Amino acid sequence: FTKINMPKGTYIGEYVGLVSTVSETIVQENHYNFQYPTCDGGIEINGREYGNIMRFVNHSTKPNSEFRAINVDDMMHVICVTMENLKAGTQLTVDYGEAFWMRQNFNPLVV
């Protein structure tokens, strides 16, 4: 939840963790893997053991924040920013995306 008012486009934080190939992490039951934005999609950020608070942002089908890939000094980073103006006390949410729910064998729209 936010502690302050946040205008649209506010940087919230970076999604961090152990970067590895999908084949190395796919065998683990892990809900904190984030698909690294590469051309082949074969890299993930594993936030389970080495992540930060960004791994706890909840899912929503009507998110108020989003993860974005940015390049800083030739290194890819995944950051979270607000998509709308948020008042203090608002829960931060993102859309986990279809690939996440397919891996869980779950449809969040049918609950």
Roughly how many Å is the radius of gyration?
14 Å
**Weakly predicted, low-confidence segments:** none
Biggest pleated-sheet summary: 3 strands, antiparallel
Write down the overall geometry. Answer: globular
- The whole-number mean of residue pLDDT values reads 82
Main sheet: strand order: 1-7-6
Question: Could you give the order of the helices and strands?
Answer: EEHEEHEEEEH
The percent range for strand residues is: 25-35%
Secondary structure category: alpha+beta
Helix content: 10-25%
**Number of helix segments?**
3
Distance between the termini: 24 Å
Number of strands: 8
What would you note in describing this structure?
The protein is an alpha+beta fold and about 110 residues long. Helices cover about 15% and strands about 30% of the residues. Strand 6 (about 65-70) and strand 7 form a beta hairpin. The protein is globular, with a radius of gyration of 14 Å.
Looking at this protein, list some descriptive labels.
32% strand; 3 helices; three-stranded antiparallel sheet; alpha+beta; 111 residues
What's the short version?
The chain is of the alpha+beta class and about 110 residues long.
How would you summarize the topology of this molecule?
Elements (H helix, E strand, L loop, with lengths): L10 E4 L3 E4 H4 L7 E3 L7 E4 H4 L7 E2 L5 E8 L2 E8 L10 E2 L3 H7 L7
Parallel strand pairs: 5-8
Antiparallel strand pairs: 1-7, 2-4, 3-4, 6-7
